[in-house]
Every structure is written in structure tokens, then in C-alpha cells.
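Encode chain A's predicted structure.
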Amino acid sequence: MAAWTWRFEKADGTQVEPAVAPEEFTTQGDAESWIGENWKALLEGGADQVRLLEDDTEIYGPMSLHADGAAAAESGSAGEGA
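Encoded structure for chain A:
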């Protein structure tokens, strides 16, 4: 059975230890749900981006944890104007 995992990196691609202990997931959806729930803590803990791996194969990434759209939505700002 495939194992889905995340690789946590600084903006320059250097691997870092995550602030939240990751798991091995049995589905891509479970892995993506986990990152959706934990991205803020990971970002605050020093990770800038992540890569999703299925076993040793990179599925996608790097994906920034600096979610401009999410941050703007949470702050109530559309990010337009000025």
C-alpha cells in the first residue's frame, strides 16, 4: 500500500523539521486534509513550503505555506485597492 507523506522545506528548498509531527497517510486526500488543518502551525514553526510524496515519488510541490489568498480571506481583506 502506498504511503503519502509531506516534505517540509524553507523557501530555498532546504529540508526542515516540522513544528507539527506528521504522519504517513494512506490516501492523498487524508494528507491534503492534514496539511489544510496544520499549515499555520507549520508556517509559524519555520516551514515555508511543502512537497507531497507518494512513497519516494514527488506528486507535487513545492507548495507555499504563505497562502496569500487564505491570509487575505481570514483577515477580511480582498487584497485589492490602495
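The longest strand covers residues 57-64.
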